[in-house]
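lol ok so funny story. i was supposed to be doing the assay writeup but got distracted and ended up predicting the structure for this chain instead. priorities right. anyway since i did it might as well share w the group, maybe its usefull for someone
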Amino acid sequence: MFQLKFQHIQLKIQDRVVRITLSRPPLNVITIPMMKEILRALEECENQRDTVAIVFDAAQGSRGFSAGVSIEEHAEEIVFQMLENFHAIFRTIERIGKPAVALVDGMALGGGCELVATCDIVIASDRARFGQPEIKLGVFPPIAAVLLPSVIGPKKARELLLTGELMSAQEALHFGLVNYVLPSSELENKLQLILSRLRELSSVSLASTKHAIDAAMGLPFDEGLKQTEDIYLNELMRTDDAREGIKAFIEKRRPNWKHR
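and the output, tada:
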């Protein structure tokens, strides 16, 4: 197990999973120093070639996943610095290409909801609440404006962004923001079940699959298919693991992944 000491987050790398825990209870308000720590943790993930997932969760004693970015850091004199650091997190998650999983127990608001929206798999408790209340402060969330229309549909995204109202866990499940809604006591077991499935797979194949999904998102069918064909032929099929997976199937044995 690999761990690094941070002030605002916890980082644990174990069994091919990077776990980043937001650790500013009770609300896990995201500050610029916290953003920089998340970025440093993600950079550690880039150094772990065989990593199959990045998990985001909240520390024990938290009242929710995150209440969002600190309001004080929206001040005019530092808002550019705030946006630069916060948006770097999302750019880095996309660049790394590892499946991202969020474990949400309680509220995920503002920047916390945006972090949830960028994750590939979201496991939420039945008491979770989601929303983008920025409009009530006279501003809007740039990441959510980009992500939410494709995640939950344009009409529901517009409603959330324009009214600032919250969604229940069941609504979030219905609109596709989360994958599972469970009692709080069952979240960790569900997470470990999903991680066990991911650990059976090739990290480079997972990354290529995520790249293909993202590259084709929102494109007309033919244009999107050209993008995925290019990734399949010129990225995936040049990996050792794609060749190994096909060979193992033909030889009726388990693949021996090299994660390259």
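The radius of gyration is 19 Å. Residues 153 and 175 are 7 Å apart (CA to CA).
back to the writeup now i swear
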